[in-house]
Amino acid sequence: xxxxxxxxxxxxxxxxxxxxxxxxxxxxxxxSSLLLYAxxxxxxxxxxxxxxxxxIGVYFFPILGGYIADRILGKYRTIMYFSLxxxxxxxxxxxxxxxxxxxxxxxxxxxxGSGGIKPLVASFMGDQFDQSNKNLxxxxxxxxxxIINFGSLFASLLMPIALKSHSPELAFGIPGILMFIATVFxxxxxxxxxxxxxxxxxxxxxxxxxxxxxxxxxxxxxxxYIAYVGFALAIAALALTPVLHFVxxxxxxxxxxxxxxxxxxxxxxxxxxxxxxxxxxxGVRAVxxxxxxxxxxxxxxxxxxxxxSTWVLQADLMVKPEWxxxxxxxxxxxxxxxxxxPLNNLLLYPLLRKFGFELTAIRKMGFGIAFSGLAWIVAxxxxxxxxxxxxxxxxxxxxxxxxxxxxxxxVSATGLEFAYSQAPSSMxxxxxxxxxxxxxxxxxxxxxxxxxxxNPTVLGHVKDTGLSEAAFLMFFFAGFxxxxxxxxxxxxxxxxxxxxxxxx
Length: 504
Description:
Number of helices: 20
Number of domains: 1
Strand content: under 5%
Oligomer: single chain
CATH superfamily: MFS general substrate transporter like domains
C-alpha cells in the first residue's frame, strides 16, 4: 500500500466529520432557530428547500473543481485552495447563527469548497496507484468509504447533542475546527504524493470531439438538431427562474444540455474520425456510455439524501426517549456502512461467487437502486401508521435505514472506484465531477417533486388517493427508484467495462 495513503484517509475522516457534523444538524437548526420568522407550519418545508438547495450546490461545484484540477492547477493545489474556502465557510456558520445573510454565505462557501474538492480527493487517491498495485486500489477505496462513515458516525451522534445541550455556535464551530485539521493532514503528505500534472490543451478533448461530431455535415444531421433542442430547453428552463428559483432552473438547464447534447453527439460520433484519432473518438464514446449510468443512478440520490430531511422530520412525529434527538437516527447509517463493507467483502460476495454469481460493479449498483426503493416503501408504510394516529416508536426507522444503507454500499461505495476506473486518463477529475453531478440531479428531483405538490391541481390528486402529502411523496420516490432500477438492469447487460488505471 503506498505510504502516502494514510494522509489522504486521515484528511477524509476529519473532513467528513466536519461536513456531516454541520449537515446533519442543518435541518433541525433551521426549523428551531433561523427560520423563526416564518409561520410555524411553513418552517419544515422551507428547511427542506434550503437543505436540498445546499446539497445541490455541494454536488454541482465538483464540475468547477474537476475542470480547474484537470486543466490548470492539478489536483493537489486545487484541493488545498478549495479546502481553505471550506474552512472560511465553516467559520461563518459559527459566527452568524442569528444572521441569515451571514449564515447562507457560509453555506455557499461550504458548498463551493466541499464541492470543489469532492471529485478530487478520491481521484487523487486513485492517482497513487498504477497497474502494478491496482488490486490494492479497491481495498483503499473501500477504506476510503469506510472512513467517510467513521467520521459521519461520530458527527451524527455528537453534533445534535451539542446543538441542543450547548449552543449553535459550538455545534457549528466544532466542524470548522475539524475541517482545519483535515487541511493540515492533507498538507503534511505533500512531499510523498504522486502528482499527475494537469493535461495541456488538447485538440482531441471531449468537447472538441463532440463539437466536430455535431457540426460536421453529413447525410443526416439529426444529432445536431437534437443538440439544438437541448440548448433551447436550457434557455426555457432559465426563463422559468422566477417560478422554479435560480438553482433548480440552472440544474434543469444543465440536464437538458447534457442529455440532448450527449445523445445528439452519440448519433454522429463517427463523423469526428475525420479530424480526431480513433482513440479520442472511442474515449468520448466511453464517457457518453458512462453518463447514461450516472443518469440512471440519480433516483437513488433522490431517496438517499432525504434521510437528512424527510426522515428527520418523520422522526419528529415518532415516539422516542426525551434525551434522543431525531437527527441522531442518522448515526445508524454510517454505523451500518462500517459493518456492511467488510461483511460484504469477506462473506456475502465470496458466498455469491461460490454459487456462480459474480456481483460486478454495475450489477451492485443496479441492485442498490432497487433496495433504496424498498427502503422508501417501508418508510411510506410507517408514515401511513403515523397519519392514522398510531403511536410509532422511532425504532421502526431502523428497518428503512438498514435497507437504504445496504443500497448505499452497493451504489455509492462501488460507484467511486467504478467511476475512476472507467474514466479516460485526461478526464479523471471531470468524470468524478459528473459522478457527483448525479447527486445534484437527484436532489433536483426532490425540489421539483416538493414544489409540484404545492400546485392546487396536483394537491387535489394527492388528496384523492387518501394519502397525506408526506406518504404520497414517499411512495412516489419508491416507485421512481424501482422503475430506474429496472431500466438500469437492462442497460447494464449491454455495458462493457474498461480499465483506465495508469500504466506506471
